[in-house]
């Protein structure tokens, strides 16, 4: 079966994610996400949250642009559902599907707390290397798949809401929910 080559702009996105993650992990921010000053800065926290939303949308929409589908918009309501679910996973940090089946969903768990949005989404977009559009099939190795990638680029999906938490273990958990959901029927994602 033929494999689809990862477009060069997706490779660049993956490289930027790794570089950004490295830069983020060496930053001076405290482990709780604060600025490290010891002062609870509500404005700073709001700015960081807005930057994370912009980064999540940018990473998703770069992958969508690469295959010619319209960009996603942020839904605070869907993000609220994702946040509730992410908080419920704080104790075990297990990437188990939520019961919200009217949404598509991608989950990410990474060791440690220094993961940024671009790196997390890049892990899903990297599945494009195994997806073959011509046959609408996935040639992923055992334990891997293409469904997270195809959800990111699903043509009919228009809204995104995500939540990132640090679990009790100190690891990072990201839940992204999509509406309308993708990966249904036998059609191609784009």
UniProtKB/TrEMBL annotation:
One of its GO terms (cellular component) is extracellular space. The keyword Signal applies. The keyword Metal-binding does not apply. It comes from Zea mays (Maize). Keywords: Signal. Residues 1-28 form the signal peptide. Residues 51-186 form the SCP domain. This is Pathogenesis-related protein 1. PANTHER family: CYSTEINE-RICH SECRETORY PROTEIN-RELATED. InterPro entries: CAP_dom (IPR014044), CAP_sf (IPR035940), CRISP-related (IPR001283). It holds the Pfam family CAP.
């Amino acid at each position: 079966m033929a494999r689809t080559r990862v477009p060069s702009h997706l490779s660049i996105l993956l490289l930027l994610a790794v570089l950004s993650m490295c830069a983020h992990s060496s930053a001076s921010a405290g482990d709780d996400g604060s600025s490290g000053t010891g002062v609870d800065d509500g404005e700073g926290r709001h700015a960081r949250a807005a930057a994370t939303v912009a980064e999540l949308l940018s990473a998703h929409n770069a992958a969508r642009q690469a295959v010619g589908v319209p960009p996603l918009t942020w839904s605070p309501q869907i993000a609220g559902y994702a946040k509730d679910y992410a908080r419920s996973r704080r104790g075990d940090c297990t990437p188990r599907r939520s019961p919200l089946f009217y949404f598509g969903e991608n989950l990410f768990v990474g060791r440690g707390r220094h993961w940024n949005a671009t790196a997390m989404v890049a892990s899903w977009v990297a599945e494009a290397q195994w997806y073959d559009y011509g046959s609408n099939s996935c040639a992923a190795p055992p334990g891997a798949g293409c469904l997270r990638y195809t959800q990111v680029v699903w043509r009919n999906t228009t809204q995104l809401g995500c939540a990132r938490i640090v679990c009790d273990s100190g690891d990072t958990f990201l839940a992204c929910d999509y509406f309308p959901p993708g990966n249904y029927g036998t059609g191609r994602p784009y």
